[in-house]
Amino acid sequence: MIYLGVVTYRSVTFSVTLCLAALSAFGQTSFEGQPAVTLSNDKLALTILKQGTGFAELLLKAEPGLPSPLWNPTRMNRELGRGPAAFNPGTGHFLCLDGFGPVSAEERAAGLPGHGEAHLQMFEAEAGRTGKTSQVVMRGRLPIVQEDVTRTVRMVDGENVVYVDTVLENLLGFDRPVIWAEHATVGSPFLESGATVFDVSGSRSQTRPYADSTNPNPQSQRRLPKGKDFTWPSAPALDGSVVNMRETPANPHFLDHTATLLDPARRIEWVTALNTKSHLAIGYVFRRDEFPWLQTWGNYPATGKFSRGMEFSTQPYDVPRREAISTGTMFGAPTYRWLGAKSRIEAHFLFFYAHVPESFVKIDDVRIENGQIVVESEGKRVKLEASLAERLR
User: Fold this and answer.
1) pTM
2) Who contacts 158 (Cβ-Cβ below 8 Å, separation ≥6)?
3) How many domains does the chain have?
4) Range of the domain at 382
5) pLDDT per residue as tens digits for the range 9-18
6) What is residue 364's DSSP assignment?
7) Do residues 121 and 51 touch, judged by C-beta distance below 8 A?
8) Is the distance from CB of 168 to CB of 195 less than 8 angstroms?
9) Which residues contact 245 (CB under 8 A, 6 or more apart)?
10) DSSP secondary structure, 44-76, as one string
11) Going by DSSP bridges, is the β-strand pair 293-300/254-262 parallel, antiparallel, or unpaired?
């Protein structure tokens, strides 16, 4: 009887421990005054905005004073002494759905915003935990395009990895082309001249073919000609030189814009940003059939407050819907994705944030092997535990 009582007591204690673990992995919070939730494990803490499901801040739990690698334009403006400003919904990694880029006059009149409705909609958040896995499920409706979005974000104890699964449901009774981008953006101080480099699983590239010479950001000037094909990372410059697109420029006052076709020979693609001073890397891994393109948008003003997009998407550039669909293909790859009548499509990716060896000055490959993410640099490897990564394969 005493032994049975001990077992019963331990069972109750174990149940309470599970409940506390779930609570500690999820919390209501705010970010720059905006409602948000946190998802964490013993390695990482991720702040997710309720508006748009945007990933606003990513921190290493062991180094709480280390800044997030994700772009925070509100903080940057504050540091420049520009005073309080409206919150930028393009903070960090945000979801461009259903749309990526400007809208037509007719869409604007109907209330459709640039980059789609998703990043402006408020989502409901529900937390859960199974075993070592904590998750947040975000649900929202896009009322103008009549689509439902369900985004599930997971972390597993002991891993430097975040897993993201998104389901898009068509509420209408006809097939339609879909425009979808994951607008992942890193920023200063992680993004640093002479230190931060970028690598990607693709080589066939093009500078953006701007329709005119209008510069959208007067703080910076374009240094790349428009509409020129090149092989990553060596892009042609307006002055006749060659720009290494891997690098974060010195003497900055530049604005760059390119697209890269991800490797057609691969099923799983990747893009990374590596700070060679802090020896920290953030990287994304995703399916090529869902996102065949990477748009690189680099804004390097003289203020030193940099931002660079690593935007994996269904199309090469952030352009109006009509242009993306009329283009049809580029370099033989599609520039949009189909969503069937009353049907669903899915997209899956993961991202990691971790220290790498001091010898890493570039990343040559990222792949999934036996429940691990293998990050390779000049023959040397780092292996990150990633127990749910095989689902991408």
Assistant:
1) 0.92
2) 41, 42, 43, 132, 385
3) 1
4) 2-210+218-392
5) 233 333 333 4
6) -
7) yes
8) no
9) 198, 205, 232, 233, 234, 235, 256, 258, 296
10) EEEEEETBTT-EEEEEETT-TTSPPSB--HHHH
11) antiparallel
